[in-house]
Amino acid sequence: MGDDDKSWRDIDRERDTSSHVRDDDSSASSRESRAESKYKKKLDQLFESGGDVPEEFRDSMEDLGPEEGTEEARRLEEIDELREADGFQEFAKAVNVYMSKGYRLPDDENLLVRMLDHPDHDIVRDVLEHYVDLSERRELERIQPLKSRMSTLRTMMDDTRCHELLDDIEEAIDEQESAGL
Question: pLDDT tens digits for 14-45?
Fold first, then answer.
């Protein structure tokens, strides 16, 4: 039986299994997989960068933000003011304004570490309480600067509650570091 005796179905089946023919489904799947991998990598970059939003996500991020004019939008604007404050005096004033408006403390550890230098011990105590809460919700990221500030606070503050909070934070850091080994 020669090639002339084969049905079109048999001929098509042979072509489909030939090593010379690309499988369009697998190449499309491969392209989709690469695109998905690239997307996930950029998404990871977004969450790890702490603010540098890749171009692909900017429109989506705007849609996720609070509605303009809401209390949360005003709070985020005040947080931006804290980030932009330059120097100790300007930052301390910005913190006073922020706290006077009754906003909850941000989870931004860069800001929290800076707030630990504030001259008002009540604000420092609030920041320490927030650090304890934060350590219960997730791993702390800025451990070295925090440890440095904690050491200074222990020597400069007589407030028993602050020392208790410092102990709690230190314990959380120790647990986090021992879990990372």
Answer: 776 655 555 555 666 777 777 777 777 666 66
In angstroms, what CA-CA distances link 157 with 55, 63, 116, 151? 46, 44, 12, 10
* DSSP conformation class of 180: T
The model carries a pTM of 0.62
pLDDT at 35: 75
Question: 145, 122 in Cβ contact below 8 A?
Answer: no
Write down the domain spans for the chain. 92-179
